[in-house]
Amino acid sequence: MGGLIFAYGVAAFLPRDRQFALGWGLVGLFLLIRFTMVRAPKLQRILLILISAFLTLRYFHFRTFHTLTFTAWADLAAMLALYLAETYGILVHLLGMFVNAMPTERDPVIIDPSDPNLPTVDVFIPTYNEPEEMAAITAAAAAQLEYPYGKLNIYILDDGGTLQKRNDPDPRIAEAAVNRHDYLKTIAEFLDVDFHHVQYLTREKNERAKAGNITNALLCSCPDSMGLDLSRPSCVDMGLAAGCGELILILDCDHVPAQDILVRTVGHFLRDEKLFLVQTPHFFINPDPVERNLRTFQDTPSENEMFYGAVQFGLDSWNSSFFCGSAALLRRRDLAENGGLAGDTITEDAETALTLHSKKLNSVFVGRPMVCGLSPENFSDFIVQRNRWAQGMIQILMLKNPLFKKGLTIAQRLCYLNACIFWFFGLARFIFVTSPLMFLFFGLDVYNATLPQVFAYAIPHLASAILLADYMYGHVRHLFFSELYETVQSVFNIPAMLGALFNPRKPSFKVTPKDTSLSADFLSPLAAPFYILLALCFAAVPAAIYRYIAFPLERDVVLITAFWAGFNLLLIFLCLGIVWERRQQRRKHRIPTREQVRIRLGDRGDFLVARTVDISEEGVGILVPPDFAAQIGDTISFRAEDSSNREYAFSLEVVRVRKDPEGKVVGCRFIMRDEKDWVRLIGYVYGDSERWVRFWRERRKQRDSFAAGVGYLFIKAVSGVLGNFKGLAYILGAGLKRIARMA
Amino acid sequence: MIRTSNAWMRSMVFGLFLVALLAWSQTCHGVGPFSTDLAELAPIPQARLEGVRGSVTLKLPVPDRWEADSAVVHLKYVHSTSLLPHRSQIVVLLDGVPLAQAQLDSPLGMGELVVEIPGELLDPGYHDLVIEVAQRSTEECQDPKSPELWTVILLEASTLSLDHSLVPLPPSLGQTAEMLFDDKQPLGLDLLLVLEEPDATRLEAAAIAVSSMSVRLGYRPLHVTLAEEVDRSRDCLLMGTREYVAERLHCSLDELPAGNLGLYAEEQPTSTNATNPMGGERALLVLTGASGEELLLSARGLALFDPLPEMADIQITEVVALEVDRYASKGMLRPGSEYSFEDLGFSTRSFQGIAPVPAELSFRLPSDLLYRDNHELTLELDLSFGSGMQDSSVLNVAVNGVFAAAVGLGGQQGGRYRSFVMPLPATLFQPGSNTVSFHPVMAPLSGGACEFIQTENLVMTLSGDSVLRVPEGDHWTAMPHMGLFFQDGFPHAALPDWSETTVVTGDGDLESLAAALNIVAMICQANGLAPLGIQFAERVPEQGDVLYVGVRDSLPQDMVKDSLLVDGELLVPEQGRVRWQEGSSSEPQADRFQLAEFRSPQTGTSTWLVATAKKSSTLLQGVNVLWDPGIRSQCSGGMTVFAPSNPEDTLRVFEGDEYYLGSVNGVGVVDRYFQANPWLGTGILLCGGLILAWGLYRLLLKRKPSRSGHAG
Predict the structure, then answer these.
(1) Tens digits of per-residue pLDDT, B567-600?
(2) Which of B298, B314, B330 is the last residue of a domain?
(3) Same domain for B276 and B418?
(4) Residue A549: enclosing H or E segment and its boundaries?
(5) Do A275 and B711 touch (CB under 8 A)?
(6) Which of chain A's ends, N or C, has fewer CB atoms near its CB within 10 Å?
(7) In chain B, how many domains are there?
(8) Which helix (H) or strand (E) holds B89?
(9) Chain A interface test: which of B696, B698, B702, B703 (most A C-beta within 10 Å)
(10) Is position B322 within any domain?
């Protein structure tokens, strides 16, 4: 009954003034519920979702039945393009409401590491062309995982050192592969001695990329589970005999695990025999290109935090949390029955999860960050990564058709549909940027509504959508950052998306390179489209002025489109700031921390309590009292304890001292006596997941009001575009100097 | 003191009295001088003529059945005192023939001119009575637009008096119909209806017959009165069986025309050589039928046979009427359609000069048509314009007098537009009649003070192939809205054949019946269609729209209870348009005519319209007043009340309880309820949302334990 009334209300005809009152009245009601009904958060969420859904559907009804008219073919094309883009946006918005209707925050399930009945676990670390040191760090961290000895095997799955690569006709490639092979094998052998079993494994040929690598490892690490002979030539350089772990922890080469990852995840498998996956968040210690180039890393949550900090909880409530390729624990039995990681698409992770969900198996999301990874360093790499995800998810949509896949519940179908169609954002965003220009330049009738109707229908819908997004994701995604990320990817996303749409079986992908050095500022090679868009948006200003004067009957439409074009211009400014790549001064990324440590100068005297400022594998910054007499070159004894009361002791060398309002910050370099020190250091820097939790929490505290959020964006836009133009001027100047010199 | 002892003397006095009475009655019914003020011909109260040369043209109608003897125009005007008398004059012309002129030389600026028009210039037809001025205020080079060059013709104070007599009507239905229903008749047609046994079926036949006449009259009033006897001094319509007709005409059955639709006229070579009871100048139309149904057949024949044949009588045996829909009425546009200007009676025309007379495109939209703010009616114009015009030359397009759009016409080369699209906001249009007017304003490229300015090149032609596109809309309207009834009969004549409406005549009084027939005729004239599906009844039906016409004492109690007609007494608050307050304490006004519209208490989708008064004579007078378009246009809201003797000063309008007709979302009942009860509707909506939220909340909570603790 309530649904019928709701449905009628969406379509109800009211005179304009009453529609206005209804729309804005509901926005007011939204705010009232938002700020008063805090004691019943679940019911509050449902009410807010329903209000926003009502306003959105009401707008969509108006948009569909009262704004689509035929005036001319060109107008129709532009009008339909915008309408379809809006329809897409509304669909994603509604699906988002469904997914996040009642997110699940699980109670922690902690195992006792001394329990002898714990299942065996194999850790797979697939690697291909990442720096070997990166793989070594991950392997070293994995070797220190808190888990009973003998029940854990770690495999470095090296696709960069396959037989095929080592025998490459190009001697440079072959030599590099051989060196890589030797290095990683040595690392494995070294770690195997004092820590958990670590084995090096490669294969004969590079087939089916990461999916093939992992599937091969499944075969090699437990051939009986898949009914195959151990002597298959694909199991190359395998160390000990197969471990046959009941569970498989998959870690990307740059995803360094905290020591408690298994302690906090294995327990779920003991409770549910039908569980095939426990996914944990991907957490990055370095800023992505957007955060670095706009300098927002310290002020705002990372882009992935919306997915791992909000959406995954929603997916989990619908048993739809899917495998994201890393930082996840899977049940070998289920993977084996599936024939390993599915490989029809390039996002084999999500595809595998889809298949296993359709077999009525379950998944869980544990929302604690327990691996530490790296974002792409530069904008080009960022785009390559995102295009790969886009192509993969669209392949899943086209080839696996999650909406009609048998075995999935309706909720799961909608969740997977949401995950797949999200990646059409590029086309929609491009249309949103260009539509106002179609009207201002060519007079195309892209949106047939008067200004009062926009205020009665469209603005309440937009307002409620922004308010709801703020309510659901505001702690993990700041204002208009979604629009920013979509806009900056849109131009490049479109060809990738269309390629996968029209040819889902064929798109290839590039592996995301990691740890590329940024030694100097430079203009991204992908910058050109944004200059074109900038020129167009600037040209829209005089076009708007002209149209306002010359076509008085269209003034309300001119105002709407001019404001819209102005918003797009703000986003383009931000994009220009992003494509001016700022140098990365440090080789290793520093993690901000605020932890108590004990230090003393040299190895004599009492330890005093100090506080860390930041930390990396190379060094640590420590806030000391002003009278702490540390000089550059001095040695400091360092003692620390993590949240699990594990103690660490290192020697530091002072490399930098600077003043601080609270005292003095001493920048130090870790002094490694031997490789074991290095392994322990890895355990100290990356082994405590509480450090990542605190880091997330710190950034999520900084939540601004709407006005402050807009102001922040505006400031970043201005500084971004000024930085870009300064950079361009510098390049131009340098070029001119070069020409002058040559002349 | 006159002693009148003789009987013959008394007879003579009585006879003289009768003659005088007859003469008076002849005068009352249109024979003799016709007098009116010129504002009735304009129709504007005054005309301001500016510039070196100005004129105003009035259409002087002379009906076909008049023989005009002479006419006198008594013109009053005021002119600027800055005019040079010997170079400023006023001229009155009829069809280009100057009739009188005078200098504009009054020191006070006020003047009068008497213009005699000989009868030989007043043939039947429309005559252009042109009042023209030439004005100068200086002997030197005169700025043609000098502000001191003006003369105002006081049309309301100026009069026309036309002496005429009636010509004999030809013995032919077709020719007589042309003369009877001539739209040049300034007072319309005064018709006496003699109807045998006014039962429901015969009243339906009468309504069809008189309405068809009012349709033929175009826009002139048709005043219908009922009587039991034929009056030779008036145009009559006699309806009944052949026996009844013969009795009324005091002749035998054999002497009646053979057909069931016939005309009696002097010297008519009827088939039976029956005595003609009428004078040659008055028409007697006869419709016969052996029963009510046959009479209905004759009436339908009269309605549909157009033009009528050139015969004295015809026998109608069968009538096949085409189905009508709600868009069938005159000038009504169908939403979702496109019309060429030609279809709408606008043929290709040219405009010439600096500010030529605008042209208008008139049409009607359904009264209950709902357009949203962003809807547009679209013009696609085909036009061409001459060369050598200034860039400031434009074609301005106005909708109902409001500027809407413009097209530039300037340039050395001239030009042509094909399919120039001009969207017009639907908000400029209104239910009922609409006018789109085209005002070209063309300026020559060059010209200065006292220079020769070529204006012959200032030409624009607007093609009849241009198109008007009307978008689809919803049918939805707030009621009561009496103005819509007088626009196009909405809702009673929403189907123009009135097939969804019942006319209820509460009392059988002839004046009340005449009032009902007049109302129906009035609305049918607006729609251009006869009410072929109309139904009359003595009791209010349970379904459908109702038009109730009767004295107040005859009103059913439940009708009174649910309307503004409280307890049968008419309570009239003092001031104009007010919200009706129950229990108002004003004195009842016995001489008032009352028209009330409200929702049927029986069904939520029907409307009752009640015309009533204390006495039937007041009722008929009130309805007759409604033939005046100026009074009709003031009728709106839920109730209109006025004294027929002085409607302008006594007319009051009242709001009624709001209700809605139509459907927007296909759920008409809910739509209407929601609109009429907005707060309750909002409350229901919020409750529905709360119920839905609670249901979803409980559903999701039920799932939660299985997900939050462990899976499965």
Answers:
(1) 444 444 444 444 444 444 444 456 889 999 988 8
(2) B314
(3) no
(4) helix A528-550
(5) yes
(6) C
(7) 5
(8) strand B89-94
(9) B696
(10) no
